[in-house]
Structures are given as structure tokens and as C-alpha cells.
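Sorry, any thoughts here?
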Amino acid sequence: MIDLRSDTLTIPDDEMLKTILTAKFGDDGRINEDGRGEDLTVNELEDLAALLTEKDEGVLFSSGTLANTTAILTYCNPGDKVLVDEILHIYKSEKVVFEKSVGQLMPVFYRLNEKYKPDMLHLRQLMKKNDIKLLCIENTHNFSGGVCLDVKDLKEIYNLAKEFNIHVHMDGARLFNATTSLDVEAKDLCKYVDSIMFCISKGLGAPLGSLLCGNKDFIKKARQKRRLLGGNMRQAGVIAAPGLYALNHNVEKLKIDNENAKYVSDNIRNLKKTKVQDMVQSNIVMLDISKTGLSTEEYCDKAKKYGLWIRPVLDNKVRMVFYNGINREDADEVISIIRKIDNSL
């Protein structure tokens, strides 16, 4: 079975796991006067994250959802308005900050343009009409098929937000898929945001963990919010050590995942019923199955019978995500299966 449900399925290799055995552990939940915990491996990872993103500081979380939630609640108070698009992962999947029983924030929806990037004119209109506290963006944009925001896009978005004194938070769960696709450094994409979250799991291959980076004052407040949300950890070096390995050894490998995604998409174009997204930039491929006569669940069930495990993500789309457990031979088999499904319709 070829499993393309998500790059969260990436399995850490032995060399990565061995780093846990020699890591220096401490109680990360015990914060000193400088705002640092006592786990030296966590501190090292947080410092590396800050260096790569060129932000003042970083802080480790067990998940991207908790990191994004903490970031948003650090900026906002109940009742504040937050700019999101309707298929932004923060809104569509995580959503806790907008729950009436929890975060109590108010979503204000901006449109995406034909390239699945924020519509600048619509953003300006919304900023003029609403008292917006925060703008959230995503890079790569998951449910748009891994679309990348480049430096020019980010600068334009950031400058507009600053006209209205609005903070910008970027969900960069797959930040390094974007950097390898755009051939830039992480700091280039993080220059025009106030805070950034990125995952060390997913394609980078660590078992779990995400980093939130921003300026010193923001991170100090985020640490306090993390504690309130139950996010403090003890010997979190067991998470940080594989994360250090991932950032030092696995970033370049993401190019292979991006290439395999493009390879598959290029070889399943012009099918009768199944339509692949126009341009694949990273490790995600979206299939529009609206002309197949099948529901997304039925399409995925058919694929599974042929040996391909994929998942529905939107009303008429299914998603394939490539990662380092998938090689070119697997990619060829994926092409064969998608063609077989389409020929059967």
C-alpha cells in the first residue's frame, strides 16, 4: 500500500533517533529570569529556529496546532477580529481560537486570487471596513495544493498590514518545502511576518514538534500563554534532539518530495475525469474529482482498492502528499493507479 494521506507519516530514521540517547535533558517547564527552560537541547533547538528565521527567539511546542493557537491568543483577546481565508488550515482544521467556548475570536474572511494567494484588493477593503487585530497567512498553503508565497508576495502583504497596524502571523507548517521550491532561505520568507510557526515533523521527519518564532516580547508572552494552555513540557529534549537533526540534515531532502509531486502531476494531466491542479510547487497534489461522478470518499475508496491510500480534503478534491518514504518507483505506481481509476469511469 502506498500511503499519501499526509507527510505526517514520515518515519524518523535510526540516525535521527540515536540523537536522543546523547541529548542533555532538563526540565523545560522551569523558566529562568531570561525566559529559558532548563533543557539544554530544547534551548539549542529554539536558538537554531530563531537563527534560521532571523527572529529574536523561538519556543518549542508539541504540535503546530498548539503553536498557532498560542500565537493567535498572544496577539488577540476575546472578540477581536482575525483575517483568514476559508480554507486556511488555522480556520478549517484547527479552529479552536474561533470556538465560542474557547478563543471567542471573530473570523473575517479574505478571498484568494486565481493563483490561490491572498487577494490584495480584498484585503485592503476588509482592513478599511473592520477593526482587524491579526492577519493569518499560510506558506505553503495546504488546501490549495501546497501553493508557495514568495518574498514579493509576503512583502506586499506585510506592507499593507502595517498600513493598518495589523500583525501578521504565518502558519509555515511546511515552510521548508516552500524554501526549497523557491530556492530561498527561511529568513527570506520570514522577514515580512511578525511571527512564524514551522513543523519539525511532517517532511522533515522528526517524530513530533513545532517551533514558534518572533520578537523577544512576543515570545515572552507566548511562553506564558503556552503554560496556560497546558503546553509546558519537562524533558522535552527527546523532541528537540530529533528536531535538531532534522533541521541540520533533512531540509535538502525535501527537494525530492517536491520533485516527486511534480513528476506525478505532470504524468496524470489530460485525463478524462480526474483533473490535477494547474501548478504543483511543493509536495502536495490536489485532484479535482467533481467530473468523476464519485464522492471524494468513493474516489479514495477506489484508490485504496488499487493500493493507493489518499484522503478527501474539500467537497470535490482529494489530496496526495509526498514525503521521504515515497520513492520514484512508488510515484510511477501512483501514476498507474490514478490512470487506472480514471479509465474505469
DSSP finds 13 helices and 13 strands in the chain. The mean pLDDT is 97. The CA atoms of residues 39 and 139 lie 30 Å apart.
